[in-house]
Amino acid sequence: MNEIKFANPVRIAAILFILAICFVILAWAEVLIIPLLFAIIFSSMLFPICLQLEKWGLHKGLAAFIAVLVAGILLALFLTVVITQLLHLTEQAPQFIQKMGILVDRAEAYISKHWHIQKAMHLFQFDHLGQYFSSTMSFTANLVSQFVLVLLFSFFLLYFRVFFLEFFYKAFASSDKQLIDDTIEKIYLVIQNYLLGLLKVIAIIGALNSIGLWSLGIDSPLFFGFLGGILVIIPYIGILIGSALPFIVALITKDSAWYAVGVLGVFFFVHILEGNLITPYVVGSKVSINPLIAIFSLLLFGKLWGLPGLILALPVTAICKIIFDMLPGFKAIGFLLGRPQKYHFKKYSHLHAKLRSRAPDITTETDATETDNPVPAGNTTSTATS
């Protein structure tokens, strides 16, 4: 009789122990690991530019420096625009607090009048809103320091890429070099295709957001529209952050609160399009991850690293899938991380069909058992012999 063979318990315990140690290290060294992971993704995006500069005759170090410098300047300009806009909103904080206080008083009066609920406390506490803006500024300072670290790591990853490749050859000396090259190439292609698809999604969503905000007459529609598009890289939370700023601007600058409601409606509508049409068709299978695993990885990395973890969750999981697919002992995990194929959704799977084909035998055995049960004890031998 065939039996299911389980893996060696010692091996399973060792793998679980190693995973636990890895998670402890990831949580403890997040200050270095998070910029390093962002640098890997960032350098993958800059690699074609760096390679083209080298083909034009530039030294490898100079090519890497120019590529990182130009990209850093562009990102710094974008961060400057964002910080300037945040500072402008900070200056308007007293006006926002006053207007929100009026809206809250009206809401409380309406609730007390129509539902006879006495006002026990304010719905919101706005006295500490200034502290929230100051904490935002401290977060921005930390973001700038991390940004510089990402640029530094990206430069060395581009400059020393052949050196790191030789390290992988030595670290996995028992493996075929071609297999190592194929694995690194697949990781690079997954990251690059994911980034290109993401840029297309950001452009489409930014344009749709901008058109919606412009139709409502909101100030700086292009800025807020494309900021909301860029924040799509933060799953689930990005839409909340992206819609919060134009929502506040609408409350401050418009006489009616319905403009703010319209802002939320625009972002919600675009979010529905993004989740059901834009991302599936534009990005497609660039990051072929099981949706269940994608949600799990978002929760796991979000718990582990917070906001940066949410951004890194999907590309890191996709990289892990490629690595597991190449390791003989981890192919099952790589399969689990992948996206189900069409035949997995057929009405009858191969396992179900196999059970159906064995159903007559199972029924016959069941009927024979039920027939044998009422036989007296003295006739059991003759029945068995027959």
Question: Can you characterise this structure?
Answer:
- With 386 residues, the protein is mostly helical.
- It has a domain at 33-112 and 149-171.
- 79% of the residues lie in helices and 0% in strands.
- The chain contains 16 helices and no strands.
- 20% of the residues are buried.
- Residues 118-126 and 361-386 have low confidence and may be disordered.
Quick overview:
79% of the residues lie in helices and 0% in strands.
How would you summarize the topology of this molecule?
Elements: H1 9-28, H2 30-55, H3 60-91, H4 93-115, H5 129-159, H6 161-171, H7 177-216, H8 221-230, H9 238-253, H10 258-282, H11 291-305, H12 307-326, H13 331-337, H14 350-357, H15 359-372, H16 380-385
Helix pairs in contact: 2-3, 2-5, 2-12, 3-5, 7-8, 7-10, 7-12, 8-9, 9-10, 11-12, 12-13
Assembly state: single chain
Number of helices: 16
**Protein structure class:** mainly alpha
Kindly state the mean pLDDT as a whole number? 77
Give the CA-based shape: globular
Q: Which features does this protein show?
A:
single chain, about 375 residues, mainly alpha, 16 helices, globular, disordered C terminus
